[in-house]
Amino acid sequence: MPRRTERPGRPDISPLNWKAPLAAATPGARVHGAAFHQGAVVYRASGLPGGRGIYRDGNGGPELVLADTSDSRFLMPFSLGGVLVVQRTSTNTGAGHVDGFAFVTAGRTLQADGHGCAVSPDGRHAAVADSQAREVRLLDLTTGISRTLGPLDAGLDPMFPPVVDVADNGARVLVTDARTPASDASVDVFDVALGTRTRVLGPLAGPSRLTARFSPSGARICVTVMLPGDAPVFRLLELAGQEEPRTVLELRQTQPFSVPCFLDEQTVILLLLLHPHPGASFGPSDVVMVRLDGGVTTALTDHADVQGTLRVHGHTISVDGGREVGLLTRR
């Protein structure tokens, strides 16, 4: 399928604006992993009076949210379903190796082992894919009760952990899986009430990388497939009901590992390389909006070489993961 690229302008999206945490100006402070959460910037910092851990910058300056302990370090924070989620690593594992998550709500902080996670839109449930235990679990964030949904086939691949998502406020859970960490990738959906597991895509012959995300209504699933190699192919697919996967977009160059985020039922954003360097299969990545009902792409940044993780917070799109947070606002 040929690529369709249109740039009708950005009438409803503000230019990308980078916002640095207040703590970044503190002498001796080191800040990274900045993310946007409920109107504030959250990040990991050291060199502040509160010690090493996760901080929140609101209007009153840095506030310690989670402090490192003798057993655990807290790494990258991010916002899901109105819940602050923080990657955790044990002090006896390799540096930066994520082995769990902390879920911070107004009333409590819960922790769970795992390598990929998602939170339901209402903030009540979290799905966790644990590659070490090889299972998928659903955690009730109000009661702390955990329920095992089923096994994971693939072992631990720290470069590309399982992608999970939650629809219908915890009634359905999506997970990317594989027979081995490097091949035969697939997308499965658990029906929590019925206790069933349905394979909706795959297995695809490896090597291949998959990401997937439910639409806001849960009626469709948007999937990215990256087939690397000497002739790389990237495809954006739509799965709706019992229909065969539909190719929305195809690109013939290597793309960054980016999970699509829905702006509305028919529009997703993700990081894409639309314009590779001459004679190369790589180049700068931009924040790109794609219409599922036509495959039309609109770049929201221009050769910006954006790196990080995209998230949608109402009318705000954030680029998380660096020393600053990039913000795009829908007017």
Description:
The protein is mainly β and 331 residues long. The chain is 0% helix and 52% strand. It has no helices and 28 strands. The chain has a 4-stranded antiparallel β-sheet, with no helix packed on it. Strands 2-3-4-5 form a 4-stranded antiparallel β-sheet, with no helix packed on it. The chain has a 4-stranded antiparallel β-sheet with strand order 6-7-8-9, with no helix packed on it. Strand 18 and strand 19 (220-227) form a beta hairpin. The radius of gyration is 19 Å and the shape is globular.
Order of helices and strands: EEEEEEEEEEEEEEEEEEEEEEEEEEEE
Main sheet overview: 4 strands, antiparallel
User: How large is the radius of gyration?
Assistant: 19 Å
Side by side, the strands of the main sheet go: 1-28-27-26
Shape: globular
Low-confidence stretches: 1-9
Helix/strand structural class:
mainly beta
Termini separation (Å)? 33 Å
Estimate percent helicity. under 10%
Q: Count of helical segments?
A: 0
> Average pLDDT value?
87
Number of strands: 28
Strand content: over 45%
